[in-house]
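Curious: why these numbers?
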Amino acid sequence: MTTDQITLFALFGAVFGLLLWGRFRYDLVAFAALMAGVVLGVIPVKGAFDGFGHPATIVVALVLVVSAGLVRSGAVFLITRTLVDSSRKLGSHIALMGAIGGVLSAFMNNVAALALLMPVDIQTARKAGRVPGLSLMPLSFATILGGMVTLIGTPPNIIIATIREDSLGAPFKMFDFAPVGGITAIAGLLFVAFIGWRFIPLGKNASEASDPMADMGQYIAELTVPEKSGHIGKRVRELYEIADKNDVAILGLIRDGKRRYGHANATKLLAGDALVLEASPDALDEFRAALSLDFADGKRQDALQAAGDGLQVIEVVVTDECGINGKHAQTRSEERRVG
């Protein structure tokens, strides 16, 4: 081996070692390796940054932009909330979630598609009382398979298309991979949905893992009603059904800087109102996307956190001997805040 070859392989070994260590960010490791290659003379100075202008790099960057847009728009949460049902059998659930993941990963980064659907899948597993690993691994496979259907579904397809253009003068088109990739994705999805998940090891503590989100912290947060919201004019209690579906507790309402609590359930929403909520981060994000609400600014969130330190949601049992047994909640004003 020549000196340049030994140097290059040593550089590769150092890069892989740093990536496995995980101490430094991947992009910093990659850029540092590029600069080291230039300094050591194994990478020509004139072509050091040619990769940044490669079509594959640009397309992957644009796909990540599209992925971020889908995340922030709430479109994925809207689809999954409508279609996913915890009462379905495991095979049907895997097939449905896998189909959604496969379609998403065909047009966006498959890692981003998996990251979007994982919280939904875990919440569904929690509600169904089953181990999340039984559906998470098939979901991962489905997103990988879906990426093979289109040109932009996975970076290797883009690289192959570029090589074909250099060799034959014309690249692969968007859906040229679909005849092979589509059949492979469908066959793979059917296998993992109805056969493959049965071979997934459950582990010794599977019986104790039926509620994977039970230990996830609950946060008090504030979401504001935008000016063009379709929920302006609705009463707070009309949002309870959606809140319950997303495991969100509506604690109160803020209007003109004044906080209202349980008795605000009959108040009609106005633009600028803020809902005080208690939920896990994932549930809060789904609720926000479902109602097209906005996050409060940082200063208001800090003030809310300070003001809500003593605020808790508790459950009480009405016994037979209790004085409010059989009486309406409104007449007893049980939903008022007790100071």
The two ends are 79 Å apart (CA to CA).
